[in-house]
Amino acid sequence: MFQADRRDLACHLIRLDSPKELDHPRVVQVPDPDRQDMQFPDIWLRDNCRCKECYLPQTLSRLPQLWNNLDTSVRVLRQSVDVEQQVLYIEWSDGHASQYPYNWLRERDFSAANRQRYLSEFYRPEQKLWSGQNFEEVRRVFYFQELITSDSALLQWLQHLAVYGVALVKEAPLEMDVLRRLSNRVGFMRRTTYGEEFSVRAQPGASNYAYLAAPLPLHTDMPYFEYLPGVTLLHTLEQSASPGGVNLLADAFYVAEMMRERHPNQFRALCQTPVDWADIGSDGDLQFHNIWQAPVINLDAEGRCVRINHSIPQRDSHFSVPMEQVRPWYEAMATFVGLAQEHSCRFKTTPGDVLTFDNLRLVHGRTGYDDTDRNVRHILGAFVDWDIVYSRLRVLRNATAPGAP
């Protein structure tokens, strides 16, 4: 209920008209002297009441009592604002009373511009796609020691990684715990069937194609997982002195958008045809048989690219689709691979470099290299999930910009 001293503020209260009766939903319009009037569905305001009967501050969450007997016909009986305190007051048809501070309302205004601001600036930074021809324009270098000691540098690294999907960390020590220290600054590593960290180097009788010295085509890591590892970190401990071992990288979202525009039928084939992905083998004493079925290009509810699945060695020989879908898929896939190669970039990391990139978005590979006792290429790898990266990014932002939602 309203506080007892609210009557003393009556001179500051402005009674508002009843919510506009639109087809659906009923809208509460809230005047704001500092900007355009705010609008909210009435049932959303009732659901998000901030009083102690409806909301638990220490958990930053609503209480479930309202939902045990939710009345979707609830209406606003009276509403008013305190212009000095900048608070909206509402009395409801179910006998409840609510108050909402303006600073809280402003962050959640249903205007198109405000919703877009929240999604692109706070929920997840808006991605900027690129071709390999423009890689030097998006390439940015960060330094290991700064990321370990400076939250500001850490924020910039994670922000750049979220927007462009790739960043290079340099001057890391040639030590086995570098990726763990870096991951711990973000949150924690993602464990897979290959452990938390994995060594990529030529191995006789290797059960994984990455452990061969042969050329490694463009791919995403581990498409056979339903919950795909989000960010790949590759620490160069030793680099081949041969001309090979060159990194290949391409923005597959850029390629997908090219296909959407230039080859729409093939784009749809890659979005709609489920592909069987598999990894069957062992690592040490662990035996595994991982299978996941999903298209190459994965879209969200609004048609935006959110995940790429692509790995020639890890595409299963099972193909669980009607026969008439097979050839169109191969033709579309040939176009995708050709465009990815055309728009890829090439560079060679040196010992102490940590290449970090978005495994849901970028495809990566390497050229083949000579492997001898005196010419060794050794890369240590690890993963951090995007959920953990985005969480850390928001925490760092909140620390520098109090008042963020």
UniProtKB/TrEMBL annotation:
<dbReference type="GO" id="GO:0045329">
    <property type="term" value="P:carnitine biosynthetic process"/>
</dbReference>
<dbReference type="InterPro" id="IPR003819">
    <property type="entry name" value="TauD/TfdA-like"/>
</dbReference>
<protein>
    <submittedName>
        <fullName>Gamma-butyrobetaine dioxygenase</fullName>
    </submittedName>
</protein>
<comment type="pathway">
    <text>Amine and polyamine biosynthesis; carnitine biosynthesis.</text>
</comment>
<dbReference type="InterPro" id="IPR010376">
    <property type="entry name" value="GBBH-like_N"/>
</dbReference>
<keyword id="KW-0124">Carnitine biosynthesis</keyword>
<keyword id="KW-0479">Metal-binding</keyword>
<dbReference type="Pfam" id="PF02668">
    <property type="entry name" value="TauD"/>
</dbReference>
<keyword id="KW-0223">Dioxygenase</keyword>
<feature type="domain" description="Gamma-butyrobetaine hydroxylase-like N-terminal">
    <location>
        <begin position="26"/>
        <end position="106"/>
    </location>
</feature>
<dbReference type="GO" id="GO:0016706">
    <property type="term" value="F:2-oxoglutarate-dependent dioxygenase activity"/>
</dbReference>
<dbReference type="GO" id="GO:0046872">
    <property type="term" value="F:metal ion binding"/>
</dbReference>
<dbReference type="InterPro" id="IPR050411">
    <property type="entry name" value="AlphaKG_dependent_hydroxylases"/>
</dbReference>
<dbReference type="GO" id="GO:0005739">
    <property type="term" value="C:mitochondrion"/>
</dbReference>
<dbReference type="Pfam" id="PF06155">
    <property type="entry name" value="GBBH-like_N"/>
</dbReference>
<feature type="domain" description="TauD/TfdA-like">
    <location>
        <begin position="144"/>
        <end position="382"/>
    </location>
</feature>
<keyword id="KW-0408">Iron</keyword>
<dbReference type="InterPro" id="IPR038492">
    <property type="entry name" value="GBBH-like_N_sf"/>
</dbReference>
<comment type="similarity">
    <text>Belongs to the gamma-BBH/TMLD family.</text>
</comment>
<keyword id="KW-0560">Oxidoreductase</keyword>
<dbReference type="InterPro" id="IPR042098">
    <property type="entry name" value="TauD-like_sf"/>
</dbReference>
